[in-house]
Please model this.
Amino acid sequence: MSSANIGSRTPADWRPSSTIDALRTRAGMLRATREFFAGRGVVEVQTPALGAATVTDPALESMRADLPGARGPYLQTSPEYHMKRLLAAGAPSIYQIGPVFRAGEQGRWHNPEFTMLEWYRRGFDAPRMMDEVADLVNVLLGPAAYETQTYAHLIGSRFRVDPNAADDAACLEAARDLGLDCGAGIEEALDLLLAEAIASARIRRLFVTDFPRRLAALARVGSAGTAARFELVVNGVEVANGYHELCDADELEDRMAADNRRRRAAGGRQVDADRRLLAAHRHGLPECAGVAVGFDRLVALRLGAAGVREAMAFDWKTA
Model:
């Protein structure tokens, strides 16, 4: 075969989506992250990217691996379930950096495969975990001031609605004024209101705390009726989502069942609850807080990039 014929078959998009200099920056940030946790005695672990079960959260859609004769397995949307099983088995505070997969996540700040940094600290609550998240972000992006606002204050000051109220009509109306589809539910409405409130606030580094009970996910709910959940937003980009973790196995099972009711109501498919995770909770998940960080987003923010494709070697379009 002639060299001319070979050349004519060469794809034009073979090059990486990032620059080599960006990959050097990324490597330095990975090294600094590992040094950060080593200095605090947090142990690095590696859990499977493939698992027999997946999350029930209606906001997340998992990908399946095509293995003949296998039920599943699923490409994991997060290492959370496996890491919690390690904690229940007696592991100390642990962290992990690795690939995760989510269907339908494509865009400026999304990629179907991305790198997640996730860690769990035994004996921590949400405020203590927020302090550690800020410490790490200061190492990776440089020090800056942080502001903390509750979910209700952030949305209430912008839209004059109460996201914790039992009556959802005002929140839905405010979201529809922003263009929310009339068929969307209250969770989608709250997501839109929060995003708009964050954009309007223009705070460089913002912790959003005390989420509404309905958005607790796997965080515990306190006596005030709000979830011990937080997010960190840097320059308008969500980079971290953390919980004071729910340890009650019965409550966990109830929430998984509620997730599936929401899935069915939206015309989606039901996802079987992870029986191994439930068994680990019943054995005893220790008191802990956990947080997931989008590592590619941190790299992009460090680079001043327009999105995550410039922070990873190959995005989904070039992979």
Q: What stands out?
A: The chain has a mean pLDDT of 93. The longest strand covers residues 113-122. The two ends are 27 Å apart (CA to CA). The longest helix spans residues 20-39.
